[in-house]
Every structure is written in structure tokens, then in C-alpha cells.
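The records we work with from here on pair a chain with its fold. Here is one such record, which you should read through line by line:
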Amino acid sequence: MAIATRLASWLMTGALCGTVSAQVIFPSAPRYLEPVYLVHGPNPYERFQAGQVSMEGSTIVVRIQMMRCLDLCGPGPIGDVLLGRFPTGTYTVRIIENDDDEVSQQFTVTQPTNPSVLVDYSGMWWLPSESGWGISIWHSTTNKIFAVWFVYDTAGKPTWYTLQAELLETSAGVAFFGPIFKTNGPYFGRQFDPSQVGIALAGSGQLVFSRGSYDGTFQYVVDGVSGVKSITRQIID
């Protein structure tokens, strides 16, 4: 009797909350080369097992394998799927679940804010000969950069600076220039106290990428100290 009740519940849930119909494209109107995801709608009676993405022209085919449970499914892998980064245009997404159920959705990628910048500089950057410090860069689709520069002070204490830079037209290459701030805050092992958070202008900096998408230069004036550092993408195998 219990098994029959669970089976009936599963059939009703599958009919009302089918996973295919619960898929959402995020963001719905992506910008040029912005990551696009297929977000899996929650369904407690199904568990994501695997996903495969392929492309045929402007059509993206997503094949999803789901396991249906007779009772509430336990914890499983996240079912969101990265579709990719796309140039300007309209794309169709065919979502096929368990090789039988299928629906289609569309999304349109808008024009880039600056057609001359077609590289995403997001990632970890460093100087291999000076291991121990580095720069973490987030390059937005609006061509603004937020970078965290983690170094050490005169006492060898780890110190973080943030560079909040905008695109700067220059003949030297693609450059981003902006202020550099120094921050401090409470010890992470205690209850967070926002009153201990501080931020102060420490100087300015410029990131210049003139040799392609894997090498650049970081120029800075921070706390009265100026310098120039060569940087390259840190590849994590």
C-alpha cells in the first residue's frame, strides 16, 4: 500500500512539476561573452545525474539524465548547466531529458559595450618567479575590472588591496585604470563586527594587456611606493 501511494505521488509530481518545463535560462538577456546557464528547477522527486552540451549552428542541445525517485530524493549534484559564452545573436536551446521529453527556449545576446575589447581577463594572475603574491581579476561585461592584489607588508603580514578600474583608451594596448583601496576587518573566527571594517584610499593602479590574453603589466602607486610588475595568467591544472 505504501509503495503504491509513493508511486502515485511520484506520477502526480512528475506530471505537475516536470524538470524540463522548470528549466530557466540565466541571465535571460545575456551580454556579449557573458556566461549563460541552464538553471535546473527544484523537484524533490528527481535527481540530476548528468548533462551534455553540444552546438549545431545557433542551436544549443542540452541532454540531461535524471533519476526519478519513488520517495523524496536525497542530496545530489547541482543540476545547473553552463551553456557557454556567446557572441551577439539569437540562440535556441533544445532541452532533452532522458532522451524522451523535450522543450525549446531562446535567448538573445546583446552587442558588446566596446567592440575593441573581445577578451575576458577574469582569472588569477601572478609572476611565476615571485611566487607568494598575485592578483585576482574579475572583468565584467561592462568592461570594468575589480581586482584583489594580495601581497605582504614590511613586517611580512598578508595585506590585501583592491583595484576598481575602468577601461582606459591607450596606444599601449587594452588598459584599465582606477583607484586602489586598502581594507581591514575583524578576525574571521569570531562573530562578525561590521564596525571594525575599514576602507581607505591607498593609491592608484593600471592594468595593461598588450601581448594578448595571457600576459600583462601591473603599474601601481600604493602608500607612496611605485612599481611595475609583469603578470601572466596562472594556469591551474
User: Anything to note?
Assistant: Residues 20-109 form a domain with the Immunoglobulin-like fold (CATH 2.60.40). The chain has two domains: 20-109, 123-233. Residues 1-19 have pLDDT under 50 and may be disordered.
